[in-house]
Design brief:
Order of helices and strands: HEHHEHEHHHEHEHHH
Strand content: 5-15%
Strand order of the largest sheet: 2-1-3-4-5
Shape: globular
Number of strands: 5
Distance between the termini: 38 Å
Structural class: alpha/beta
Largest sheet: 5 strands, parallel
Length: 297
């Protein structure tokens, strides 16, 4: 009887040690966070440098994600406010200290990358600024420029995604998130004093159009490089846009953090919004195919 008990105990110990080993292996999945201000945590001070990477544990989704997904390691956090597609693969980002081309933060050992990019290429800051200070920003030269930018962004995103995948471990995964609508749909969309309901609806239509192109670029790049997934955040933010009772986006506010800036940090996710992003990425990482690709030897 004692011998049987000893054998059973040894078997349980072996299984426990094996499970711990598997957990440790899964928890070591290398993770690199790239992208723009929606990934850096812009608006949620304090920051760790000129890229405005939010320092708080709850202030930027790359810092939150490992606590939601047990197999993801702490991030190599390299997102940078103001980043464009060119800053991902082509050039060091201007005026951001020692920030390198974002591709250079990747290696063949990188198994997971998260990314938001494209909003600045469409002209996010210019759109918001001109809508704040013009009588009607939905018509004229700005609207024409935005249409031209939207027409070319899909191919440029596809190329950037493909290059990221080529720098990563072949079996790894690139997760690409879109952007939330900024304003509550319907008659309350015009609650901003300097932005009319018409302008708010136009801005949100651009977000939806941009997200559609991001999703299509993900599909295009997946066909070329494999293992890329689009992460939709619009439904997760629904009911928490600006003008809602519980906003997950910063309202318009002036900042002196980089000189007089009328909206640095405005219209970016609050800490609650960053948690929403983290939960959206965690949902993607719970998909069986993605989890298996990242955790199986």
């Amino acid at each position: 009887m004692l011998r049987r008990f000893s054998c059973a105990l040894a078997l349980l110990c072996a299984l426990f040690v094996s499970a711990l080993g598997a957990t440790a292996q899964a928890a070591s999945v290398p993770y690199v966070a790239l992208g723009d201000s929606f990934s850096s945590g812009e608006g949620n001070r304090p920051f760790d440098g000129k890229c405005h990477r939010a320092e708080g544990d709850d202030s930027a989704y790359p810092r939150i994600l490992p606590s939601l997904v047990g197999y993801v390691a702490e991030p190599s956090f390299n997102a940078c406010t103001g980043a464009t597609i060119a800053d991902v693969w082509q050039r060091p980002q201007p005026k951001r200290g020692d920030q390198k081309i974002q591709l250079e933060y990747l290696s063949p050992a990188t198994r997971l990358v998260t990314l938001t990019i494209g909003g600045n290429d469409v002209g996010f800051a210019e759109i918001v600024t001109k809508c704040l200070f013009r009588r009607d920003c939905t018509e004229g030269s700005l609207a024409e420029k935005v249409r031209e930018r939207l027409a070319t962004i899909r191919a440029r995103l596809t190329g950037a995604y493909r290059l990221i995948r080529e720098r990563m471990e072949p079996g790894g995964y690139l997760l690409v998130a879109g952007y939330p609508r900024l304003f509550l749909p319907g008659p309350d969309a015009g609650c901003e004093k300097l932005i009319s309901q018409k302008e708010a609806e136009w801005i949100d239509s651009l977000v939806i159009q941009g997200n559609a192109r991001i999703a299509k670029a993900v599909a295009d790049a997946t066909a070329l490089a494999g293992n890329i997934a689009y992460v939709d955040v619009t439904e997760r933010f629904a009911g928490h846009e600006l003008c809602s009772k519980e906003e997950w986006l910063h309202d318009l506010h002036f900042s002196l953090h980089e000189g007089l800036n009328p909206f640095k940090g405005s219209y970016h996710p609050t800490e609650s919004g960053q948690h929403a992003y983290a939960e959206a990425f965690a949902g993607a990482l719970s998909r069986p195919a993605i989890r298996a690709a990242l955790t199986l030897p």
